[in-house]
Amino acid sequence: MSTPPKPRDLPTLVQLRSELKREQYRLTYGATLRSTAFFLVVVAAVAVLVATLMLPVLQIYGTSMTPTLNNGEIVLSVKTGKPEQGDIIAFYYNNKILVKRVIAGAGQWVDIDEDGGVTVDGIPLDEPYLTEKSLGNCNVQLPYQVPDGRWFVMGDHRSVSVDSRDRAVGCVSEEQVVGRLVFRIWPLKSISPIQ
Hints:
8-stranded antiparallel beta sheet; 1 helix; 21% helix
């Protein structure tokens, strides 16, 4: 003979309410977590797009721009307008990004004497950012007229910089320009606008 089944214990009203609250919290927590993750992904994507397309962040390598910019510094650039004389620009060259100062624009004549003094259209260039002048590695025929749609650029450390004075680099076209350097953001003690 078999024993009759035991009656089930039914949950109380308090237990039902408690379980309902727990389940509602779990659903709300999951929805909040998903929406927060989605928001963070969207913000990160927008930040990457802005940094890539409008405000590229670059790290300086080498010494061609010392003392203005030093190896390892991180700078912010902007992709607006055409570079002007005195601007420091970043540009693509052979799958690298180089950083140099704009000396002259399209149609202007650049001349450099043996001591490294630069003239643009016969007017001596005022260069307070230099600590030394040098003709450096120059294999272009001077005086040199900058071609249309291009900029003649030079590094601030003239004796070591490879720039528009070398036919291998030449003048920079608009398509090569990454942006104009505007602000130094690293190291923290050196945060400042770039002159």
